[in-house]
Amino acid sequence: MYKGIPASSGIAICxxxxxxxxxxxxxxxxxxxxxxxxxxxxxxxxxxKTRIDGFIEAARAQEQTESAQIFKxxxxxLEDPELISRVENQITQEKVNAEFALETTVNFYLxxxxxxxxxxxxxxxxxxxxVANHIxxxxxxxxxxxxxxxxxxxxxxxxxxxxxxxxxxLDKVQGFVTEVGGPTSHTAIIARSLELPAVVGVKKITPSxxxxxxxxxxxxxxxVLVNPDPDTVEGYRQRQEAFLRQKKELFSLKGLAAxxxxxxxxxxxxxxxxxxxxxxxxxxxxxxxxxxxxxxLFLNRETLPTEEEQFQAYKEVLAKMxxxxxxxxxxxxxxxxxxxxxxxxxxxxxxxxxxxxxxxLKNKALFTTQLRALYRASVHGQLKIxxxxxxxxxxxxxxxxxxxxxxxxxxxxxxxxxxxxxxxxMVEVPSAAIITDLFAKEVDFVSIGTNDLIQxxxxxxRMNKQISHLYSPFHPAVLRLxxxxxxxxxxxxxxxxxxxxMAGDPRFTSLLIGLGxxxxxxxxxxxxxxxxxxxxxKNSTAKALAKKVLALSTAEQIRAALEDKEERSDSSxxx
Length: 575
Ligand code: PEP
Ligand code: MG
What we know:
- The two termini are 42 Å apart.
- The chain has 575 residues and is α/β, with parallel strands linked by helices.
- Helix 1 (34-61) packs antiparallel against helix 2, helix 2 crosses helix 5 (119-139) and helix 3 (81-94) packs across helix 4 (98-114).
- The longest helix has 28 residues, at 34-61.
- It is built from 22 helices and 16 strands.
- The chain has three domains: 11-18 and 147-227, Glucose Oxidase, domain 1 (3-Layer(bba) Sandwich), CATH 3.50.30; 20-139, PtsI, HPr-binding domain (Enzyme I, Chain A, domain 2, Orthogonal Bundle), CATH 1.10.274; 258-537, Alpha-Beta Barrel (TIM Barrel), CATH 3.20.20.
- It has helices at residues 34-61, 65-78, 81-94, 98-114, 119-139, 162-167, 186-194, 230-251, 278-283, 307-320, 357-362, 364-377, 393-412, 430-434, 436-439, 450-458, 476-491, 506-514, 527-535, 539-550, 555-563, 565-568; strands at 2-3, 5-8, 11-18, 153-157, 173-178, 198-200, 214-218, 223-226, 267-272, 289-293, 325-329, 382-387, 423-427, 445-448, 495-498, 519-522.
- The strands form two sheets. Strands 1-8-7-3-4-5-6-2 form an eight-stranded mixed sheet. Strands 15-14-13-12-11-10-9-16 form an eight-stranded parallel sheet.
- The site of magnesium ion has 4 residues, from helix 16.
């Protein structure tokens, strides 16, 4: 059995198709005709462009907007003047073949990217390698090799790039296993959007599996089993059926209210990265958008989005939500999210550095452009503006001052702006959590960002694999802070929601309702499972569970209590 990182849930049982590592025979050859060699290089670039445009079109046609964005970023490499002239210069000066010049150039950039401390740049290395492989395929004597798939299979490979995926006949693919990648890698994102099970980061899996071996992947636990015995296969078949039954059952909740057995209605909102995630949010019945992470508009590109471009994106979301609330968060750049266009200075501790609102307050022009786009879009729906990474009242006041100035400026210019746009903050820094009572006097709402609140409370970098076992939402300190925020927000009569991953984890639903939370925002795919928990819950059960859990002293005890289904259901805890 192999253990990797669970990237997309579900169970697949199927023969493996092992895709070999991409290796090109890169001989260095001396060429005579420099002009002809450069022409050959440009023809390969053009062929790659046509192929990638095809990927973009296909992704758009299937509404795979995220994949389309990735391919658009790939296209930028093909137009990069520095990269192209480096290859051309090498061909001219050293009289070498195009393949060799390209590979040397790409390795030069890959080296720089690989040394970066920044996850964003390291991920770009995969993109560059991917694009270079396409060009090399077109330069190869026998032309591109595309895998032929005739039977259902699970793809096992070292790394699966978005363009590899686009070349696969996906109707036969039942799941993915890769050696490289994390939960937010492209393979993981694509597998989730295709709703196919996937396990990534499974070290040394390719030499241990042969095409045709029967394998099982458990996308929930991150397990891969190779040639399992018949009893194990039978056990997993049953689990697979149960998973599919459960999925179908959850679908039947689509039109139903998120109401506890006592009739308390809970608001279920969706987290989105852009308009492309709206169809799922609407299909699963979201009551609104609780977090629109606008930084996705800024990533994977070399220029900043203009006011008009941003206005169109915000307007689309507001209009499509038809009057339901839409919380749009101003950009949270820095930390693990970076942008080439900004040329950010490397920092020792980017998560403790110039991130979120700190960055915006130092880059007023960029902040103002976004605020202008937001206020202009405000007339198209029920907009709420949220600031990320707020750690003090001074920061909040400075951000509000910018917002007010922008608003006044737009009105003076004759733009129409909504009469009331509530302004709130993410509570994701412990200092903000501790002074929620003070914030409650000035903000319209707060949303608890548990992803960061956990890392800052426990001093555990959320991206660092070495200490990931310490990153625990079950830690009593985290739960006490959450309770404090909910209590103080309620006392100050402001709206409180939660938009970190904890909100979409059904193990916490009962506890959070017991703590007084009435609004949850999560990835659209989590909405129905949380709704199921809510509908099975009595408020007395939730309150008793919260009381019990808050009296426990360790994360392990709390995890055990919350993972015990009996404990969470309404058959115990004083129902
Ligand atoms: C959070 O920190 O919980 C959050 C929702 O923000 P992000 O994951 O974008 O940092
Ligand atoms: Mg955050």
